[in-house]
Amino acid sequence: MPKLAIDRDFLREFADLEKPVQERVEEVFAKFDHATHTGLHLEKIAHARDRRFRTIRIDRFHRGVVLAPESGDIYTLLKVLPHDDAYMWAGRRTASVNSATGRIEIRDSEAIESVRPHLEQMAAAQQREESAALFSGVSDADLRRLGIDPQTLDFARVLTDPVQLETAKAFLPPTQWQVLYGLATGMSPEEVWDELGAAITEDGDGFDPEDLDAAVRRSPDRLVLVEGPRELMAVFARPFDLWRVYLHPMQREAAEARHSGPARVMGGPGTGKTVVALHRARALAERGAGPVLVTTFTSTLAESLAAGMKVLADTPEMLEAVTVENVDRLAHRVFREVHGQPRLLKPPQERELWSTAAERTGTDFSPAFLAEEWRQVILAKQTDSADAYLAAKRTGRGRRLGSAQKARVWQAVCEFQRELREGDLWTHESVCAEAARILAERDEKPYRHVVVDEAQDLSAEKWRLLRAAVPQAPDDVFIAGDTHQRIYANRISLREVGIDVAGRSRRLRVNYRTTAQILGWSLELLHGESIDDMDGGLETLAGCRSEVSGLPPQLTGFANRTAELRALADTVQEWLASDVLPGEIGVAARSNRLAQEAADALVGAGVPARMLSGGRAEEDAVSVGTMHRMKGLEFRCLAVVGADADQIPSAKAITPESEDAVAHANDLQRERCLLFVACTRARELLNVTWQGEPSPFLPGAG
Ligand SMILES: Nc1ncnc2c1ncn2[C@@H]1O[C@H](COP(=O)(O)OP(=O)(O)OP(=O)(O)O)[C@@H](O)[C@H]1O
């Protein structure tokens, strides 16, 4: 039975076709799986360079271009174009199998052949001037090993200038172009080979260059094989949600692998960790071993995961097998089942209780210090006695405490906890710790698998709850996160909370969100910072890259806030005038107050703008919010306002160095990470502004 594969570029173009043409495309291909290829009336193309390209009638004016195998039964839909354009497009192209990756490649052979003589002449002229060929330092053997085929190799040999290579992107086979581009930018063949690593599915040789079926199956990042009309309609219904069906091989591997225990996926911003987490949840639900929990640290992020899950889980049974909720919600649910509704302590009440505890026990530690010590050491390490506290490692707490001081802190903590007990008072943390205790004692766990997104921001008691929510079994815990994007104070070690991912970590490197220019500049923000990997080592963003090129971030300083916000309104209006929709624009500020000022300035200038509250961007208004609220969102155009020395780092968020040097350094790092998170929400354009002195974190400002 013939099968249909759809090219990802076509799907994007499908969205731009007129509705009646879209409907015809759906009708024509819906019949595909019960037709034979002859029944489909695939027409040969006279004078085609590659006889495997065929066309199919869509309506009076349009033709589809299909790649038909000579043997095998997978047909690939590549294009739908007006009649003459379709014939021209198909007539000039050839399909081949990349010898390094085994994946399918399509090139515009006619363009390669017609440009080549001109380049050759230029090369000959330059040789007389003794300027070198672009790849003179790379041997043919290396090029071949990296999958460069004879036609591309011959072409590469006449290139003398990187600009020529840029232009050739439009017609060379894409993977081979990337290889050449890597070499042209100074990478060694070994480095390029490593880059190809994820794409190399089997050991180099042995790919049959004629076996297109096998090549299609090896190309899930580019071609999706649809299983029947229902799946076909689902693909056509969401042409923009490419992540739904086309996964990078590394993403697919991370989503589908089987593990003997907990596993995780790491990677810089926009590399598709959330996408992998959702696919993982679907894969686990499909395996049917038991209920899956998908979770994260805020309700806003959980909402967007739930929306993603709805897109992915296409049957009611699958949706039922997967629960999406944030960890606090799970904690409160488990707690309520046993104790009923908790009486929660409000932050001012908590401060008062700490002051009283400090007074009664005669210690001079500040309420804020005691509260942090309780959260980060006593709760985080489950410290339940004075001796345990004396022995506890106080990771992340800089101020050294002698044993006499520790004894006084312990007394104050006991006093605070006594007040909680006697008043039956709880905090979110103690609710979570209690829920973890309840589940740890149960033999029957509520879930079989847990998938955690934005893992870097969860506290130790939350991890303990999640650990206790699933049995220790294969594929029990799956973690997605990036410690470079940690924006809250929790620094934990996965091992200490009973989660061992050793040997089961994967790293994603290709950024699908941001342009290379925005990503490169944002990475500079964190340059030189040592950031832990939650597993005893250091995390790295090395190799994180985007394959999309765009404009560099625009950095501008102003004399005062009024001028800065006036310029913001002008910029946003320019974006709107260039066809960007209001919902595709975001404005981020460090403080809620400045965000509100920015929103007011936009509304005052007649721009529809709304403060982010639930976290969801609205289609008809520019979204304005704090950098914390930006987490998990993305915008075509993003303005970061108030990137001043006074706002970033925010003095309120920084522990004075004199009080605690380690906490001070950690707080500074967190502020950097927050700015990094905000800037990496931009897809195409990023505009960063400040008044007076720029933030010391900004690369290239001032
Ligand atoms: N294979 C893919 N094909 C097309 N688009 C993709 C793919 N993977 C991810 N994306 C898109 O890239 C963007 C970033 O993906 P995602 O939010 O999963 O990344 P992330 O690593 O979780 O990001 P961050 O850590 O910055 O929050 C999204 O718009 C997503 O739809």
CATH level 4 superfamily of the largest domain: P-loop containing nucleotide triphosphate hydrolases
Helix content, binned percent = 40-55%
Strand content: 15-25%
Number of domains: 5
What is the name of the CATH class of the largest domain? Alpha Beta
Strand order of the largest sheet: 2-3-4-5-1-8
Structural class: alpha/beta
CATH topology of the largest domain: Rossmann fold
Distance linking N and C termini: 65 Å
What general form does the structure show? globular
Number-wise, the strands total: 26
CATH architecture of the largest domain: 3-Layer(aba) Sandwich
> What count of helical segments does DSSP give?
27
The low-confidence runs, each spanning 5 or more residues with pLDDT under 50, are: none
The averaged pLDDT comes out at 90
Q: How many strands, what sense, and barrel or not for the largest sheet?
A: 6 strands, mixed
Name the hetero compounds present.
Answer: adenosine-5'-triphosphate
Notes on the protein architecture:
Its EC number is 5.6.2.4. This is DNA 3'-5' helicase. Keywords: ATP-binding, Helicase, Hydrolase, Isomerase, Nucleotide-binding. InterPro entries: DNA_helicase_UvrD-like_C, DNA_helicase_UvrD/REP, P-loop_NTPase, UvrD-like_ATP-bd. This protein has about 700 residues and is of the alpha/beta class. It folds into five domains: about 120 residues, YaeB-like fold (2-Layer Sandwich), CATH 3.30.2310; about 100 residues, no CATH class; about 200 residues, P-loop containing nucleotide triphosphate hydrolases (Rossmann fold, 3-Layer(aba) Sandwich), CATH 3.40.50; about 80 residues; about 140 residues, Rossmann fold, CATH 3.40.50.300. The protein contains 27 helices and 26 strands. The strands form seven sheets. A six-stranded mixed beta sheet has the order 2-3-4-5-1-8. It has a six-stranded parallel beta sheet with strand order 11-10-14-15-9-16, sandwiched between helices. A hairpin with a 6-residue loop joins strand 4 and strand 5. Helix 7 packs antiparallel against helix 8 and helix 12 crosses helix 13. The radius of gyration is 29 Å and the shape is globular. The structure holds adenosine-5'-triphosphate (ATP). The site of adenosine-5'-triphosphate has 21 residues, from helix 13.
